[in-house]
Amino acid sequence: MSCCVPWARLNKRKRNKVMMKTPMMTSLMERQEKKRKEANIQISTSEKLIPRISFAELQKATNSFDRGKVIGVGKTGTVYKAAHPHLRFTAVKRLFDFQHLEEQFLSELMILGKFRHKNIVPLLGFCLESRERLLLYQYMPNGNLYDWLHPVKGEPKNLEWHLRVNIAVGIARGLAWLHNHNTLQLAHLNLSSSCILLDKHFDPRISNFGRAMHIMTSNARIFMANIEMGEWDLTKRDVHQLGVLLLELITGKDPLKNSEFYHSLEGKLVQNNCLLTVSAALYCAVDKSLLGQGFDREVLDFLKVACNCIQPIPNRRPTMVEVYKMLMAIKNTHPDILG
């Protein structure tokens, strides 16, 4: 019996040692608890602005998330076309079950609950049950801009010039509004053609606000992904991303698959300080379906706007309001683009 006592004491000491909290563990647990409390406050606030919908209702609306209802798959989740008794058709985004997507879910919820604009996708509801995270949007019958610019082989999709200009104007108008909102200025920071949705009239709606950040009204600097940035840098990043999107609109080339082309084109545009010759710009870079239609001059002006947006030095780029005004000037120079 005497030989068992030391072992019993040793095991007890080991158990006590395992249960002891280090300062680092305590700090981590405190931060996690603080995050949980903040998340609960955000969700509670969102419920006052956006309806909370049960998982069962969304499951029924998507026919148990039938594969035939899938209208899009992205990095954060799968989007389904859903039918509701009173809302007609909607788009339900079911987020993947990843811990890091929790913040993006809350970001979309808080931002789209507060911001309402004709060029921002409307959020109609949300679901938060167990490990499920779902967002309910207004359905956009013309899908996203990326699919129109880069159709699958065999799909007869073509965006006419006046539609491309209208889309560019709408995106710039929406971003300018976000950058200059009276109380809650915002930078999108994740702009691409895949997050531009098109309604039945081909009016653009900006989506995907998971990485968006509020812009400080003071000159305090912001730390994001270990990169120090000021509010000026945030808005100018949006301007650069819009510039790349404008190039995609006018060249028809996918930035992700043609990175060398874009770097080369950006370099040429910057070297020429936007003073491009017709032969150099129009016939080497522009989507050939846009040429010879009677608005070659407007196409060149469009290129110049893109050039201004992708200047390598941020403070040389225009503000989003200035971009919007330049694009509006292009829209108003041709009668087919009015509307």
Automatic annotation (TrEMBL):
Keyword hit for Zinc: no
Protein name: Protein kinase domain-containing protein
Recorded GO CC terms: plasma membrane
Keywords annotated in UniProt: ATP-binding, Nucleotide-binding
Highest taxon in the source lineage: Eukaryota
Record's bilayer topology term: Single-pass type I membrane protein
Residues that bind ATP: K93
Molecular function per GO: ATP binding; protein kinase activity
Compartment annotation: Membrane
PANTHER family attached to this UniProt entry: LEUCINE-RICH REPEAT-CONTAINING PROTEIN DDB_G0281931-RELATED, LRR RECEPTOR-LIKE KINASE FAMILY PROTEIN
Domain Protein kinase positions: 65-337
Entries under InterPro entries matching the protein: Kinase-like_dom_sf, LRR_Rcpt-Like_S/T_Kinase, Prot_kinase_dom, Protein_kinase_ATP_BS
